[in-house]
Amino acid sequence: MKFAFVIPFNCGRALRLASLYYGALKLAGLTAFARRLSSGGVILCYHNIIAGTEADPSDSLGLHMPLATFSRQMRWLAGTYQIVTLAKLVDSVSNGGSLHGVAAVTFDDGYAGVFENAWPVLRDLGIPATVFVVAEAPGRDERFWWDDPEVLRAYSPARRDDWLTALRGDGAAIGNSLALAHRPPANRTSPPPWRMAATWPTITDAARSGLQLGVHSATHRSLPVLDDLELQHEVVESREIIRSRTGVTPEFFAYPYGLWNDRVREAVRAAGYRAAFALENGHRATTTDPWALPRMSIPARIEDAAFHAWTAGLNLRRGRGS
To answer: Which of 294, 264, 262 is nearest to 278 (CA)?
Structure first.
């Protein structure tokens, strides 16, 4: 999961302007031209895929993409790019190979909707994908903290920074700061099943049918602000949890919130992962550092022309913090 509140993607005026901009690029042929010129690959990051054709109106973070949108994107991607496994992409990066026309598909967090909705589409199209699982999330009867309506209502840029630094991206600490644990039972709404983490049997079955698994830490805390013992738990013990529950030993790690520093990078490298992935809006996989590979976070409401432009490296949001 990545906090990307800088410019709300569902802001009416911004969305209309973006639609006109990307539509004009496509009509002028500039999107296709930029794609032909690009030498870098593209690693896409999604979060959740929900059934239906319409976006969830409560999804102000843009994490829960309608299945119809996702299916359309995957069909286009399969006809436009060579979609490869993360292992093959990392091999190309490590060996200095060309990434021109290469794409990879990933998901963060391990939502149930990915396994129920996205994986059948990917399997039918023959598209490989990797899901980065938060190791201690499956089996819990609570939503991810960033999906809580009270958290979304309380958001501000200053609070966001506080949540990811002083409160370390810790869901329990953030909940306590908002007194979520003290809400009367009548005021607690149960999230729909697709907004929950998938169960271990669901994850295991998908892995056996070809879906690749990666590690997205143990608890999804902000790694740069943790002490060494906590960092060990998030980086090393998380992989052992996934291995013990699925029989799969993941090769790749994704930094929670896309946050990392040299100490975190070294901990991931020393733990024996083949590569690690961050999240950067609008950045393509041009780095040669296998433990700092950028992925493009795809918002739920993105229109087709914008999606095509983003994968070509044309992005209005490039260079903006998040």
So the answer is: 294
| Residue 317, pLDDT above cutoff 70 | no
- Rounded alpha-carbon distances, angstroms, from residue 109 to 90, 232, 315: 21, 19, 25
Report d(CA 280, CA 63) in Å as an integer.
Answer: 15
Q: Read off the pLDDT of each residue in 40-51 and give the average, rounded to a whole number.
A: 94
The yes-or-no verdict on residue 307 having pLDDT over 90 is yes
**Minimal CA–CA distance to 137: which of 86, 191, 211?**
191
Instruction: Give the Cβ contact number of residue 282 at 10 Å.
Output: 17
Closest CA to 150 of 46, 55, 58, 54: 58
139/204 Cα distance (integer angstroms): 13
CATH code that applies to domain 12-311: 3.20.20.370
